[in-house]
Each structure stands twice: as structure tokens, then as C-alpha cells.
Amino acid sequence: MREAFTMWRDTRMIMLVAVVAAVYAAILVPFKAFQIIPGFVSVRPANVFPVIFGLMFGPAAAWGSAIGNLIGDIFGGTLSPGSIFGFVGNFFYAMVGYKLWGSLGPLSSGNEPDFRSNTGTQLAEYVVIAAVASALTASTIAWGLDTLGLAPFPAISISIGVNNFLTSAILGPILLFLLWGRVKDLGLLYPDVMRSEDLPDVGTSRTQLAAYGFLVVAFVWIAVGTFVAPPGSTFQLVLGAVGLVLAFALAAVSGERLSSIVS
Amino acid sequence: MSGSTSLYVDKPTIFHRLTARSKLALLVGVLTTAYVFGNPVVVAVPLVALFVALVYAGGWRNVKRLSFVIVAVFLVGFVLWPAFTPPGDTVVFRTPWFAVTTYELLFALGRSERIVAFILGGLLFITTTSNEEIVTGLRSLGLPYAFCFAVGTALRLFPTFLGATGTVRQAQAARGHEVSGANPIERFRAYIPLIVPVFMTAVRSVQTQAMALEARGFDPRRDRTFYDKPTFGTVDWAVVVVGLVLVVGSVWLSFQGYGQV
């Protein structure tokens, strides 16, 4: 997670944070009217952005998605203490992309996510990442809203998880196909913008272990929180606290492989 | 800032004159009272207080604008919570499929009021705090300058990109691409082709804006000053104390068993 802090030294990364946040919010707000669970879950084509931005802009996208979601809450009129969990959840939503790409062992394609070659394995890798990112985001937000007594975990986790996954899994590969090369030509992919010494220097085995850790934490948390732990219970509270601490711990120990894949 | 997106209302009220920090402290106090109690009669107190404050601060227009979300949030919470609440003793009404008890009804009502109170609290903050004050407030809370700068820039760029979406939409419409219509799925699909040009317009500006910033001596690691830095006066301190009293008092009362269903 070192890169999430060292990126603030670079002016272009800071501008990317602002642009990602503004674009995310600009696509979020017009769709605030299309509510699935009013006030909590809306139709969000913008949900495709955190994952693909994460792959393109790395830590700048993580901060940008978090800030963009907050701006969406502000201008959509749904700013509340629950927005804090929306901030954290959307941070993870983008972070999982660049942390997991290339780190999933046999599930990884070994290519940069341009969907130009080896498309089938790239698609499989992307879908796994979208599922992990969606599950982790949904769990974080649903746990926060459940803890605040705003909405029950099962109702929110399923709707956010499915909503996020479908949008990012369907639209993501199309947009990456259209955008990856253009952004790369502009020299704005995070491995091109950030200095190599600002990126985490972590061995392959640790990066891979952390990637699978994310996968396990995300799926176990959402499954147990939705189908086993009663909403508003101490079990739910403890489960979420453990899940969140583990997610941050994995983020702290993990590295990233995408920068070594990008040619 | 485009008038169509901003919820800020410029009005000389006491809430507008407070600094962002003291407003946050007061909000934390009021929202804590909405959070720690469950009895709908008790939760109604901070809810009504926030509504009155919001109307006083000129936020009635914002309430009307978001009335659909507020009403829907209230109703959804009211319907959802009984399904996730342990049943009580006294049945209020029974159908062939389910029965609703007094406990479930009061619990759901309290929770729905809490959600609305939280949303009105956020709305009060946004109604009385400009984007510039939000950024200055974040800095005064001790957040790093680079982060505050990114938030401020995003807040400034957001309406620009929202406007760019409109421009691209009009340009595509001129080429025969239909983006309006009653069917939400069709509208959703119609918006997809707009995403790429809006995104590329935004990303292309990163290089030039970064260069412009550095040419003006921008350095994220150096501290900087603000032109309009509000002073934290006596009234602000008094408001912080009120917020603190509300937090401590409401938590203590709830531990004593008051205000629960």
C-alpha cells in the first residue's frame, strides 16, 4: 500500500486523482434518479470506472474513486455518515484491480489488460478481479450501513455486489479495449507516471499470496455476512471489523505485478 | 459552479457563518442523538431540529429537489427492517403471509427516521458550506494539502465534465444518436457511447494541467496559505461544546436505557 501514499509526491498522479474523481462523479450523478434501493443503491453505469481506472491509474484511481463517490453523495443529496464507508469501499473497488492483475497465478493471463491478444484468459482474469472488487466493496459498504443501523447487511450487500459486478464485468472489457491503448499512448498509465522506487518492491510469492487473500476475504465476508450473520448483531459487527482489518492488512503487505507486465 | 448541480445556498444565516469544523462538530452531536436512540419519538427530536435548521438556512429548495429520495429512503427502511428484526409480542396487524408486531413497527419507524435525519444532516452541511469552505475545512482538520487540493480540483472539474457530457450528448444527437426516452434500459444503453469521448477529453487535460501547475511552482510537499481562511471564533467554540455535550449526554442517556424501543 506504500504506493497509495508515495503517489502524492507526483503532480500528474494528483491531477489523475482529481480527474478520476470528477469523471466518476459526473457519470454517477445523472443516474442518481434511477434508484434500486433508494438512497443506497442506484443504477450506476459509472461502476465500470473504478475497476478499469484502477488498472490504468493504480493508486490515483483508488483515491479518485473514493473522492468521486463522495462527490456523488454530496451532489446527489445522499451525504450521510454512511458516506465514510462508501469512501473506503470505493477505494478498495479501484485498488483491487491493480493489486490483483498478474498476481493470480494460473488465473492470470500474463498480458497487460488491453484485450488485444490472449483475450479469453484476459477476460477470465478480469471477471475474477471484478467479482473480488465488487464483493469487497459491497461488504464494506453494507457493513458500514448495517453498523450505523441504516440498512440491513443482506439487502445492501447483494444489491451493491450484483450491481457493481454486472456493470464492471460487462462494460469493463469493452472500455479497456477502447481506452487502454489511448491512455498508454498519452503516457498516463501509472507505471509510466510513477517512479519505480515509489512502487512497492515485493516478491512474487507475497504478491500472489496477498491476491488470493483478497479473494478469500471478499467472498467469505459477503457470504457469511449475507447468509449467516444476523443484521445488526454483534456477530455481524465483529465479522465486518475483522474483514476490514484483514483487507487493509492485505493491502499493506501486497505489492503489484502490473507495472512489470506493462511493456 | 453550475447552478444546476450545486446545493449550496448563499444566505447570511448563523450556520453559514460557522466554520466547516464547528458545523461538523455540531452535526456529529445531533446525528449521534439520532444514532444512539431507537424510540421513534426520541429520534424525531433531532430529525425535526435538522429539518427546521435546514429550512431556516434556505435549504427548502434542496429538500424539495431531493424529496423523492428522502421519501423513498424512509419507506424502504420502514418496509425492510421488520423482515430483519426479531418479532415482539403484540401483533398490530396480521395477513395470511405475515404478522407485524408493535416492536417491529416502532423499530422500523425509528430506523427510518434515523436515515432521514442523517440525510437531512448532510444536506444542511452542503446547503450552508461552499466548495471552497469544504476544502479549507478539510485542511484545517489536518488532512494533507495534496489531498485537499485533489478534492478541491475534483469539485471544480466535476461540473465541467458534467457539462462536457451534455455537449458530447448534443453532438452525438446531432449525428442521429438518440439518448432521450422513457425506457430506462434504452437510456442506459444510449449513454454508453458517450463515455469514451467524455473520458478522453478529461484524461487529455491531465498532462497540460500538471504542467501548468508545476510552471506556477506547485509542490505537493510544501505547505501553503489560503486566501480566505476563516477564523475559529467564540461562537464556533460554543457550537463545538454543544456538539460535545450532545454526544456525551445522548450516549450516557442511552446507556441508562432511555429512548429505546
From TrEMBL, chain B:
It is a multi-pass membrane protein. InterPro entries: ABC/ECF_trnsptr_transmembrane (IPR003339). Keywords: Membrane, Transmembrane, Transmembrane helix. The chain crosses the membrane at residues 43-59, 66-85, 105-126, 138-158, 234-255. It comes from the Archaea. It holds the Pfam family CbiQ. It is found in: Membrane. GO terms for cellular component: plasma membrane. This is Cobalt transport protein. The lineage of its organism: Archaea, Methanobacteriati, Methanobacteriota, Stenosarchaea group, Halobacteria.
